[in-house]
Each structure stands twice: as structure tokens, then as C-alpha cells.
């Protein structure tokens, strides 16, 4: 990333769920309701764009590709976009509600949401493309449970557990809706 710390800081502040407001040597955050009332609705989606390391971005990108290609290949780009537009704000709101502060970001909640969708839709309307290796959902949900214990915190790794769980539940709900109301489907071609 090029640019000054001030420029990077203002871009980051614009992408977080609420802005960062300097307050002397400290920072403060307005409430989410005040932020949304000010018309900054984009903040419900933009935390998914924030990644705090290259490894974080690569890890999320790989899972987004793995799960997203399955949905897009079967139901089209419109269905995948629908999921991204649903899962990003739900996972951000879940993290905001349960988190200690609003300094979070990443696609992990969306990725867990796509996992939830695939697991539920495969169970209710099986498709070969949605069949994941049996151990994969168990591993990822087990990892979610392990991270929720705070095991990474002594190493300086704060995990957005609220976003992960919120995304997983929202993805499962999305899968239920799409399995039981397939007529509302966008179909293979998108839109």
C-alpha cells in the first residue's frame, strides 16, 4: 500500500462499520445508529473489504473462490451477488453487536455464510457441485468453536467470532429460503 499513514488511516476509517474519530491521543467511535442516520449506509458492507494482513486476504480469498464458484457455477452470478449482499452486512452487524470494539474487518463472515448456504442447500436440494468433503464443514465449524475460546488472543490475533457465527447462521437461513422457495431463484444465468 502506498500513501501516508494519514491517507491510509482515513481510507480505513471510511471502510469500518463506524468512523474513527480522533479524540486527543485516543480515538472514539460514534454509535452505529448515529452513523447510519447520517446516511453512511455503505458501512454495513465495507468491513468485508478490510483485511489486516496479506495472509488474512489470501485465506479469505481462497475460501470465497472455493465456495463462491460452486454457487455461481450452479445458480449464476446473481445468486452469488445476492449472497454477498446479504451476508456481508449480517456478519458485520453480528460482530458489531458482540464485539468489544468496531475495529474489525474481513470476508470471514461471508465465507462462513457461503459454507452455511452450501451445507443447508446440499442437505435439502442436493447437487453434486455443492457436495463438500465431509470433513470440511466439521473442520471449519470446529475451528470457529476453537477460535471462540480465545485461544489466539495470547498471540495477538483477535478473531471476529461474531462475524463468523453470524455469517454461518445467515448463510444457513439463506439456504433454507432458497431450498423452499426455488421459484424466487435467479437461475443459472444470473439476474
What does this protein look like?
The chain has helices at 5-15, 32-37, 54-75, 77-98, 108-124, 135-148, 161-180; strands at residues 21-23, 26-28. A hairpin with a 2-residue loop joins strand 1 and strand 2 (26-28). It contains seven helices and two strands; from the N terminus they run αββαααααα. It is mainly alpha-helical and 191 residues long.
Mean pLDDT: 90
The percent of residues in helical segments reads 55-70%
Query: How many H/I helices?
Result: 7
Instruction: Enumerate the strands of the largest sheet in spatial order, edge to edge or round the barrel.
Output: 1-2
- How far apart lie the N and C ends? 35 Å
Reported for the largest beta sheet, the result is: 2 strands, antiparallel
Strand content: under 5%
Number of strands: 2
Unreliable residue runs: 1-5
Instruction: Please give the radius of gyration in angstroms.
Output: 18 Å
Overall body shape: globular
List SSEs in N-to-C order. Answer: HEEHHHHHH
The structural class is mainly alpha
In short, what is this structure?
The chain has 191 residues and is mainly alpha-helical.
Amino acid at each position: 500500500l502506498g500513501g501516508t499513514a494519514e491517507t491510509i488511516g482515513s481510507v480505513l476509517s471510511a471502510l469500518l462499520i463506524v468512523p474513527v474519530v480522533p479524540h486527543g491521543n485516543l480515538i472514539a467511535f460514534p454509535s452505529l445508529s448515529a452513523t447510519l442516520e447520517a446516511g453512511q449506509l455503505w458501512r454495513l458492507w465495507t468491513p468485508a473489504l478490510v483485511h489486516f494482513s496479506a495472509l488474512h486476504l489470501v485465506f479469505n480469498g481462497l475460501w470465497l473462490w472455493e465456495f463462491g464458484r460452486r454457487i455461481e457455477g450452479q445458480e449464476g452470478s446473481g445468486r452469488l451477488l445476492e449472497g454477498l449482499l446479504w451476508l456481508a452486512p449480517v456478519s458485520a452487524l453480528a460482530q458489531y453487536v458482540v464485539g468489544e470494539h468496531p475495529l474489525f474487518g474481513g470476508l470471514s463472515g461471508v465465507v462462513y455464510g457461503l459454507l452455511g448456504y452450501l451445507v443447508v442447500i446440499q442437505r435439502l436440494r442436493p447437487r453434486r457441485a455443492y457436495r463438500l468433503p465431509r470433513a470440511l464443514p466439521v473442520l471449519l465449524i470446529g475451528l470457529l468453536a476453537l477460535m471462540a475460546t480465545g485461544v489466539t488472543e495470547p498471540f495477538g490475533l483477535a478473531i471476529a467470532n461474531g462475524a463468523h457465527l453470524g455469517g454461518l447462521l445467515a448463510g444457513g437461513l439463506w439456504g433454507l429460503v432458497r431450498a423452499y422457495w426455488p421459484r424466487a431463484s435467479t437461475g443459472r444465468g444470473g439476474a
